[in-house]
Amino acid sequence: MAAFISSLTVADAIGSFGALLVVAAYFATQMRMMNSDDLAFPVINLLGSALIVYSLLQNFNLASMLIEGFWIIISLIGIIQHIRLRRSPE
């Protein structure tokens, strides 16, 4: 275990933190602590995915990069929709 920990890089730590953010946002929605309509949900997912992409640029994996790319696009769409809905008259 010590050898594994000593082999981790800064990119691994950053990517792991990003994964924790994405999972925490999902967990918070499942526990009804956060609503998926809240702006925080896509923002946290965007940040988490961006951190994971950073780590993937150091240790590339095509399948993971595809998922994170789509996750970033979906998060950006969610942020844009949130902003549009707040600006539209009711």
What does this structure look like?
- With 90 residues, the protein is mainly alpha-helical.
- The chain has four helices and no strands.
- The radius of gyration is 15 Å and the shape is elongated.
- The mean pLDDT is 95.
Q: What count of helical segments does DSSP give? A: 4
3D shape: elongated
Rg is 15 Å
Distance between the first and last residues' Cα? 57 Å
Question: How many β-strand stretches?
Answer: 0
Largest sheet: none
User: How do the helices and strands follow one another from N- to C-terminus?
Assistant: HHHH
Present the secondary structure layout.
Elements: H1 2-7, H2 10-30, H3 40-58, H4 62-87
Helix pairs in contact: 2-3, 3-4
Features:
mainly alpha, 90 residues, 80% helix
What would you say about this model in short?
80% of the residues lie in helices and 0% in strands.
